[in-house]
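Bug report (template v2)

What were you trying to do?
Predict the complex of my protein with adenosine monophosphate.

What happened?
Run completed; filing so the output is reviewed.

Input:
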Amino acid sequence: MTAPETSTPTSITTHLATPAPETSPPGPRRVLVIGSGGRENALAWALARCQGVERVWVAPGNGGSDELPGCEPLALVETDGAGLLAAALERRIDLVVVGPEGPLADGLADQLRAGGLAVFGPGADGARLEASKQWAKALMLEAGVPTALHWPATSLEQALAVLNQHPEPLVVKVDGLAAGKGVTVAETQAETLAAVEEVFAGRFGAAGASLVLEERMNGPEVSVFALTDGQGMVLLPPAQDHKRIGEGDTGPNTGGMGAYAPAPLLDAAGLELVRRTVLEPTLAALRARGIDYRGVIYAGLMLTADGPSVIEFNCRFGDPECETLMPLLGPELAAVLLACARGDLSQAPDLTIAPSCSACVIAAAAGYPGEVNRGEAISSTLETSERLQLFHAGSRRDADGVCRTAGGRVLAVVAQADDFDAAFAAAYGGLGQVHFEGLTYRRDIGHQVRRP
Ligand code: AMP
Ligand code: GLY
């Protein structure tokens, strides 16, 4: 099988199987988004625009949370489950959306559900899809989901035995959550060996108590997101991230320096193939293990010569894919996420998806993905509009009212247009209107889809 052919972005159609009945349950009025990144800023922005939503709280949020219409920050951190539960009950929250993987893996969604809240985000059991590479690989194998061949190892000796059998360079992945830093795509066997030794020397703590060695795949990468109530699913348009810091996709991996959607690499037929061969079998395997997965399944795919193959699963939205996708989604989003949380997605309204091209460029602090300076004042003359957004990520608002940098990826500028040339021109134009000392960005985001 060959990689899916490209097509125009507007050919993407993602529908619920069942049309919305007259009696669609109402969407949420009061929403809590948990997290502090660009992803959560974009989620809060999109949810506050939805039909029937009166207020969105973001805990803890970032320097941009209080600028979003209809939103306000809530000074509680992701790890404070008891505080979040109490605050949500006090505010009569109808829907909680948990952004980051760490709290999900630690059981935050379970704790909030046990307190009676409707939560979009899997419990600790489902979050293992991201929190343990070995567990996810075993599930894929069981479900017949296409993915790279792999060999788990729980000791240096085991890993060396695998390397002895495989002289080709392998990909080394620590088993647990490692904030995007736990993967080495080795170019030589010496590099594979060095990465293995580093893991077993304890560089990743408990996350690196075991690892997975994987055969190396080739092909373009694309991210696919399925919103699910554990039974049905709604697919979002595929997005393509740019993980490397340097132009031409060079240098160290980052959390993502920019993205665009819909990625023409995966047309409507390609997306259906992913639904059939990857997402539905994965969901069925989760159910077979007794896991009621309510949230988003993020499939990181490589489009190999043999078809789409899973690089990894995540149990949350991608960042910056989320910032890129949210502006394309219609006002039914809140009702759809609530239906996922309640387990009645078949009753939800159809999610409208704009047939536009969305482009996102990240403004990062100098030195990212290494150590960065924090505390630089952020200024902006950018006027946002229906088709131009500024999302905050690593920023904070200080007591003096000034917004300052507080992390590696600081801002995301996102624009939509009828084609990618215009969308990227608008996003880069917007980026030119924001400033902080040391601002760095990639000039070639979307090089795959726009004219040089
Ligand atoms: P991950 O943290 O699992 O997303 O991996 C980071 C990056 O490593 C991916 O985006 C890929 O570019 C690369 N990668 C991971 N697994 C493989 C593989 N089996 N073959 C080739 N590249 C891979
Ligand atoms: N954009 C990559 C990630 O969120 O993991």
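What did the reviewer find?
The mean pLDDT is 92. Residues 180, 241, 256, 314, 318-319, 321 surround glycine (ligand 2) (CB under 6 Å).
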